[in-house]
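Collaborator request, handled under Task 6.
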Amino acid sequence: MMRRAPLALLGAALLLAACQPVGTPKAPDRADLAAELVRLTGSGPPTGPEGACWASDVTPMVIETVTQQAMVSDARRDKDGRVLAPAVFRSETRQNIVQNREQVWFRSPCPQDMTVEFIASLQRALKARGLYLLPLTGQMDAPTRAALRRFQADRGLESDRLSLGAARELGLVTIDLEAG
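Structure tokens returned to the collaborator:
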């Protein structure tokens, strides 16, 4: 009887070890939606792939304001080097265009897929992330668009139109596991 106890414990340990998962699936990375933008020199939408749907938006112009101090006159000093009158400065402000407005294109779910159920799922996914706080309506209304813009802007796409990359990250469309 004493010899069977260690064997029974060993057998139980092997059974438990067999029940443990071999590997844990990797959580999806945060999407870089800016990498999915297509900029065209002509009119859009882009061609291909077959059956793909595209959305477009206009990126905002980015302007930086630069303020510098420019010396109007030097300080006046006496023969011993003491300051009689301090230097006079004035502020000069100018604006530089860092990025012009431009139309960008990105893949998006097709219009026929944007059903009431799909949009309710979008609202649910945004609500789970604390971005959408209202009741689910299934309508692509202003609060839904604002929440979507906040989600996508944090990932490099300043748009209230749903991109395919954001839909994938939110779990709303399937992901091809072979592709990536």
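The cover message to the collaborator said: "The longest strand covers residues 62-73. The CA atoms of residues 31 and 132 lie 19 Å apart. Please let us know whether this matches your experimental observations."
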